[in-house]
């Protein structure tokens, strides 16, 4: 019965496409339908269950596929659902083959036939991938990739975008299969794909994470020590080894990130991994009593233990990553702050938002200066102090900007002078450091911006007499009088007073008939009312 309903649904759809076709051939935008349906029915938020609906044979395949993806999520905590997952994937592939067979009709155009072949190859590749039949899966994915690449080359750039996206989605699967077949170079490509994606999800995201962790674990087996600020310390904790091995890759991915959203996601991923590593080292510090005793002995001689120094190094990585992340966010907000606001109802960025970011940066720098094992490292302390001055200058600048918005000119001018004071200190101290400012914002740009803002503020009081030309010699002196202080009083409308003047002219009606006459009835009336009879 279901098959009959599918055929009844299929025929009108094909006839409708025939009417829209010039040569009478049938067409179906398979990949476009898939992508639109996925975005409209829950996959934007990873809700595969919402996507299980009925629509032609294609939608039957998508329904089975989406159910399989839902089961894949649930199989993380319920491994028994993996068998059901494979059954649904096989059913999706069977529907895909049915779709491909239907598209073999001479009434179907060449583009739709190719898309059906690519879609079937993709579903078959998914089945083989889950069965860990790497060679078969790779062949199916390569067939799918080849078809989509040919379709992309045959159409305009706008139409080819969708095909290129599908090729990018398939590429990690192909490289993963290649690695499992024996291609050791594939791991480098997979790590780059994973980092450039910003840690996002995907069909094989969990497998890819496990593979990268496994590869780093193998590399960590030969890693025994790390050097930082002239001191070499052994690294015996596996979690710390794996994190330090992947640190360079994570930092490279952040630098290569295409947009702020991806960069922010990478920063959060790096910070989360760093916190877990610090926690592992901290637990080792708590449990290793002998190590703590050696640390106490080393403190007397001015040198901390190796494990404590490793903890300080990891804490430095975390705190400096926080500084870089907030600096990146501040840079994006600065650009938005300079853009004109088109929608008055929408709240745009404000200087207060940047002040909060720089507060977090300064707090992190304060924690950096108090790291154990670096108290006597005068070079490190001077570098941190120099960086603190730079961010203090930027924080002070945006505090001044917030005063400008409420037209507190004098407070803003004082703060701008303080910004210049900080920048002069930075320039004088930076001469003794070669690379201390390479990762910091340019203070020279800040000086130029402050100078422009100062001139703008000094000219702000002149707006009261822009329409009148007056040659004032004092404006050319060293102490020009730009504004009169205190300003003159200006008349303002006062609150009106209301008086009831009509009361004396109102004649009230007589109320004699409403008022009871006193003394009426005498004592008899009194006793009548007392005993309840009478009136």
TrEMBL record:
<dbReference type="GO" id="GO:0005783">
    <property type="term" value="C:endoplasmic reticulum"/>
</dbReference>
<dbReference type="GO" id="GO:0005829">
    <property type="term" value="C:cytosol"/>
</dbReference>
<keyword id="KW-0539">Nucleus</keyword>
<dbReference type="InterPro" id="IPR026258">
    <property type="entry name" value="SRP68"/>
</dbReference>
<dbReference type="InterPro" id="IPR038253">
    <property type="entry name" value="SRP68_N_sf"/>
</dbReference>
<dbReference type="InterPro" id="IPR034652">
    <property type="entry name" value="SRP68-RBD"/>
</dbReference>
<dbReference type="GO" id="GO:0008312">
    <property type="term" value="F:7S RNA binding"/>
</dbReference>
<dbReference type="GO" id="GO:0005730">
    <property type="term" value="C:nucleolus"/>
</dbReference>
<keyword id="KW-0256">Endoplasmic reticulum</keyword>
<dbReference type="GO" id="GO:0030942">
    <property type="term" value="F:endoplasmic reticulum signal peptide binding"/>
</dbReference>
<dbReference type="Pfam" id="PF16969">
    <property type="entry name" value="SRP68"/>
</dbReference>
<keyword id="KW-0694">RNA-binding</keyword>
<dbReference type="GO" id="GO:0005047">
    <property type="term" value="F:signal recognition particle binding"/>
</dbReference>
<protein>
    <recommendedName>
        <fullName>Signal recognition particle subunit SRP68</fullName>
    </recommendedName>
</protein>
<dbReference type="GO" id="GO:0005786">
    <property type="term" value="C:signal recognition particle, endoplasmic reticulum targeting"/>
</dbReference>
<keyword id="KW-0687">Ribonucleoprotein</keyword>
<keyword id="KW-0733">Signal recognition particle</keyword>
<keyword id="KW-0963">Cytoplasm</keyword>
<comment type="similarity">
    <text>Belongs to the SRP68 family.</text>
</comment>
<dbReference type="GO" id="GO:0006614">
    <property type="term" value="P:SRP-dependent cotranslational protein targeting to membrane"/>
</dbReference>
